[in-house]
Structures are given as structure tokens and as C-alpha cells.
Design goal:
Number of helices: 11
Radius of gyration: 19 Å
Number of strands: 12
Order of helices and strands: EHHEEEHEHEHEEEHEHEHEHHH
Shape: globular
Strand content: 25-35%
Largest sheet: 10 strands, mixed
């Protein structure tokens, strides 16, 4: 919960006047249960800003693929968004405590997480990759068993490293992925193992590192939602389908991934169909 900062409503042109003042400070149950109200419903959305290009913060503004996506969905479904930020590890506990309604942070859909929260249909197909300095001699994750590997705390990358036999004491876990990258650059780690689009985004802007291996893990990102609010979940899924149908979803891949469509999820994939068995 540290670093939580309320940014207030980011959007929406046309709905602020009717929804913002009425919706601020509503409880999770209230915001999820007011679906039949014709006025805009305010939902509390949390994001982790250390996951570019999905979420980051620049000049005090939260931005990224996930932020544009949830804003577009909200516009389709007449929702007001009250946005806050927090560390990744605090998102699911905050949903369980109903202090937020929704979390967007490139969250991998896992069976263990489905026990704690609900998820929207999948919106991004991801994988994990290995990032090293260009002068390193490694060629795959199997070469890292006696090396120091940096990653982000509480993510599926930690699970992968353990499954590959990397000793726990060799896995350096950080709250912020930027600290993992700094550790690689300073020599405190030999590699960073993390979500492919984030590693690639870092490699695109730093000439001294590169991705040496992409590992297809079959993981999908979903929007995490407070449990047992089917009306809110339906709105999010309906909005996601709407932005796919009108092409707005595809435009986000042009904006944030240079047109790379490898993460596109065109079908309506329910979370129980794609959840990792973790």
C-alpha cells in the first residue's frame, strides 16, 4: 500500500459533471451494485506504475496500455474512474479488502489468484524472457543456475525461476522492476527474467542490453476485479469486446508496441480457460 497516491478521476469527457462528485468515496459494494443507475458509476481502479509500457508515470501522470484500455472501456460503459497507484504486491490484498474495485497491472491470470479475485476475459497474451548485457556469455535461462537473477517480487517470473532450478538465494526480488534493471546495469545481477513486453521495452531504449531468450509460458493478462460483483465484471467484459470491435484495442498495440500484434487476444477468452495452474 506504500506509495499509494490518489490521482483522482482521469476521465471522462462528458461524464465528469454527472458522475464524479456523486461517485467519489463510494464503497466497492455500492459502486458495483449501482449498475441500474442511469448516471455514471464511479469505480476505484489501482495500477502499479512500474510496468512499462503497460503502466508508468511521467511528469506526474499515469500512462500506458492498461491505462488507455481501462479508460476506453469505461467510456464505452459509462463508468467514471478514480485512479490510484500502489505496489504490485498490494493490488490483490486491496481487492480482497474492497478498498479498490479493479486493478490493472499486467496481472497474469492464475488459478491461485482466481481464488482471491475475479478476472475479466483475457486481454493480452504474454510470455517471459531473459535480458542480459550484450557482452554476457549466457544463451538461455538454463545457463543461470549459478548466477544472480533479478526480477520483480510476487510475479510469475519468480515461479518460473524456481521451476528452472534457480536457488532461492540467487533470485533477487525487487518491488520495482526498474530496480532489477539497475541491478543488472551495475553488476549486481547477471540477468533480468521478466515479462517479455516489459523486457523488450527496456531493451529498445538501452543499447547495452538485449533479450537472449523468449519463453512461451501461455500466460494471459486480465483485469482483476473485486470478487462477487458480476454486474461490474460484465460491464468490463462488454467494454473490452466493444473496443475490440471498433478497432480501438488494435490501435493501442500500434501506440505502445510499435504495431507488434503478438499479444493480441481477439477471442473472448474466459479466465478459467486460460488460468495458469499455479
Amino acid at each position: 500500500m506504500r506509495n499509494k497516491k490518489i490521482y483522482g478521476s482521469l476521465l471522462l469527457a462528458g461524464v465528469l459533471a454527472t458522475g464524479l462528485l456523486a461517485g467519489c468515496g463510494t464503497s466497492s459494494s455500492k459502486s458495483a451494485s449501482s449498475q441500474n443507475n442511469d448516471s455514471a458509476q464511479t469505480i476505484r481502479v489501482a495500477a502499479d506504475t512500474t510496468f512499462p509500457p503497460f503502466e508508468s508515470e511521467k511528469d506526474g501522470k499515469v500512462q500506458g496500455f492498461d491505462i488507455d484500455m481501462i479508460n476506453a472501456i469505461a467510456k464505452k460503459e459509462n463508468l467514471n474512474i478514480q485512479l490510484s497507484t500502489m505496489q504490485f504486491t498490494g493490488l490483490i490484498p486491496a481487492l480482497q479488502a474492497q478498498s479498490i474495485d479493479v486493478a490493472v497491472a499486467g496481472i497474469t491470470i492464475k488459478k491461485s489468484r482466481l481464488n482471491a479475485v475475479d478476472f475479466s476475459n483475457a486481454y493480452y497474451k504474454s510470455g517471459i524472457s531473459v535480458l542480459t548485457k550484450k557482452n554476457a556469455s549466457f544463451s538461455s535461462v538454463d545457463d543461470l543456475k549459478n548466477k544472480l537473477v533479478a526480477t520483480k517480487k510476487g510475479t510469475s517470473s519468480v515461479d518460473l525461476l524456481k521451476s528452472k532450478g534457480i536457488p532461492a538465494q540467487n533470485i533477487k526480488q525487487f518491488d520495482n522492476i526498474n530496480d532489477a534493471y539497475s541491478s543488472l546495469v551495475s553488476g549486481g545481477a547477471d540477468a533480468v527474467v521478466f515479462d517479455s513486453p516489459v523486457n523488450q521495452d527496456y531493451a529498445n531504449t538501452h543499447n547495452d542490453v538485449h533479450v537472449i531468450q523468449s519463453i512461451p509460458t501461455g500466460e494471459y493478462y486480465g483485469i482483476a476485479v473485486v470478487k462477487n460483483h458480476p454486474d461490474l465484471l460484465k460491464k468490463l467484459n462488454d467494454g473490452l469486446k466493444a473496443i475490440k470491435d471498433d478497432g480501438e484495442y488494435a490501435k493501442l498495440f500500434d501506440k505502445y508496441f510499435g504495431g507488434d500484434q503478438s499479444g493480441v487476444v481477439q477471442d473472448e477468452l474466459a479466465p478459467d480457460k486460460v488460468a495458469l495452474d499455479e
